[in-house]
Amino acid sequence: MFTLCVVLIILASIVLAFVVLIQNSKGGGLASNFASSNQVMGVRKTADVLEKTTWGLAAGIMILCFVCAFLSRNEYNSVHGISNTQVEQTTTDAGAEE
């Protein structure tokens, strides 16, 4: 599961890089190629789609990173035989000593 999550992060990062490179902040980029007057998607609509795709991919990468962090912590604890009660007890004991 962890490996799948990492692969999804890498793929989303590559797609995000291409989407950002397609955009042009001056109004050009992919949107400027569709300059005909009888097009279905206008220049403004293309820029909106690219912007929404950028934000969606960035949010997806962030969520996948949080999932990977949670999975790696659980995997580490299971490999080393640490249960959640041991972790809670250790943190409680450390707080009592101070």
Q: What string, H for helix and E for strand, traces the elements in order?
A: HHH
Q: Give the overall shape, derived from the CA principal axes.
A: elongated
Which class best fits the helix and strand makeup?
A: mainly alpha
Report the mean per-residue pLDDT as an integer: 75
Strand residue content: under 5%
Helix content: over 70%
Low-confidence stretches: none
Overview of the structural elements:
By secondary structure, the chain is an all-alpha fold. The chain has one domain (2-27, 42-86). 73% of the residues lie in helices and 0% in strands. The protein contains 3 helices and no strands. It is elongated. The protein starts with a helix and ends with a helix. 3% of the residues are buried.
